[in-house]
């Protein structure tokens, strides 16, 4: 029992789910006790759920000086709430989660997210969702090193979108990681993003790229086809380019957004088996 904790803790089959309830920010003393319990129980997966209450920066503070070597997956998401409803939820700096979980392989987080430049040796999948995500987040992401990253999935916004993508494009250019898959949702100008990615050059590790959102000022399919043809050498290195428009372009493996791997990436179903 944790004194004065207004919430629930469920532990089963290596998974620990903590639900914060109420209208106030969770006290540091409560988060510290919860972290100690996680250290004792050594779960494989940890999920934090906000039933109105949010731990905010207090969770990151509670993790300082703690190591949770058993944790392979960390989820900050409330499956009963929309992405928009979770827009103000926070657990502080995600770098604190990464530092406390040296063997973490999967991280899924929704809300008002923050990330300082950091290095993590084990992270393979990173999912970031907000409404909207802050440009400050991408400043930090661009300074990160994730040498084992395989999948990067970013939902820039839901109801608050589409969102300007300059900060994201810079982060993708600077991020030191070799993802095979990059998925972005909520873009304001897919055409500008395609142009910028082609001009800067796609990293050789990228094999799957899916972009969703608004095409921009000109949604003429012929203009889009011309853009892709102009950069066929860049996008031709991909195995799959997913776009919300059905186009046929010689030398570019374009498919529509209907591919199930993109539709499900930003839903709770992606982490149900973690």
Give an account of the 3D structure.
It is a single chain. This protein has 274 residues and is an alpha/beta fold. The protein has nine helices and eleven strands. The chain has an eleven-stranded mixed sheet with strand order 1-2-3-4-5-6-7-8-9-10-11, with no helix packed on it. β4, α3 and β5 form a beta-alpha-beta unit.
Low-confidence stretches: none
State the secondary-structure class: alpha/beta
Distance, first to last CA = 26 Å
Average residue-wise pLDDT = 91
Helix content bin: 25-40%
Computed over alpha carbons, the radius of gyration is: 19 Å
Tell me the β content.
Answer: 15-25%
Number of alpha- plus pi-helical segments: 9
Please provide a brief summary of the model.
It is built from nine helices and eleven strands.
Please tag this protein with its features:
11 strands; eleven-stranded mixed beta sheet; 9 helices; 22% strand; 274 residues; alpha/beta
Secondary structure layout plus pairing:
Elements: E1 7-12, E2 15-21, H1 28-41, E3 45-51, H2 57-63, E4 73-76, H3 94-100, E5 106-110, E6 125-129, H4 135-142, E7 151-155, H5 166-174, E8 181-187, H6 190-200, E9 208-213, H7 221-230, H8 232-235, E10 240-243, E11 254-256, H9 260-263
Parallel strand pairs: 2-3, 3-4, 4-5, 5-6, 6-7, 7-8, 8-9, 9-10, 10-11
Antiparallel strand pairs: 1-2
Helix pairs in contact: 1-2, 4-5
């Amino acid at each position: 029992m944790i004194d004065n904790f207004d919430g629930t803790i469920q532990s089963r089959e290596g998974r620990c789910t903590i639900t914060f309830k109420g209208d106030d920010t969770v006290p540091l003393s409560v988060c510290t006790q919860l972290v100690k319990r996680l250290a004792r129980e050594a779960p494989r997966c940890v999920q934090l759920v906000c039933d109105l209450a949010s731990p905010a920066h207090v969770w990151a503070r509670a993790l300082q000086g703690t190591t949770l070597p058993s944790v392979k997956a960390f989820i900050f998401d409330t499956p009963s709430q929309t992405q928009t409803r979770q827009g103000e939820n926070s657990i502080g700096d995600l770098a604190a989660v990464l530092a406390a979980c040296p063997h973490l392989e999967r991280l899924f987080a929704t809300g008002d997210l923050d990330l300082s430049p950091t290095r993590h040796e084990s992270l393979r999948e990173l999912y970031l969702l907000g409404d909207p995500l802050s440009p400050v987040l991408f400043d930090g992401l661009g300074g990160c090193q994730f040498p084992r990253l395989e999948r990067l999935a970013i939902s820039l916004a839901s109801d608050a979108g589409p969102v300007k993508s300059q900060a994201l494009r810079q982060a993708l250019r600077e991020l030191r990681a070799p993802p095979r898959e990059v998925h972005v949702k909520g873009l304001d100008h897919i055409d500008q993003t395609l142009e910028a990615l082609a001009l800067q050059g796609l990293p050789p590790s990228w094999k799957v790229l899916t972009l969703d959102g608004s095409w921009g000022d000109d949604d003429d399919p012929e203009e889009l086809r011309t853009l892709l043809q102009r950069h066929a050498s860049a996008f031709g290195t991909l195995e799959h380019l997913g776009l919300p428009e059905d186009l046929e372009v010689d030398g570019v493996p374009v498919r529509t957004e209907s591919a199930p791997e993109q539709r499900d990436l930003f839903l709770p179903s992606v982490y149900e088996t973690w």
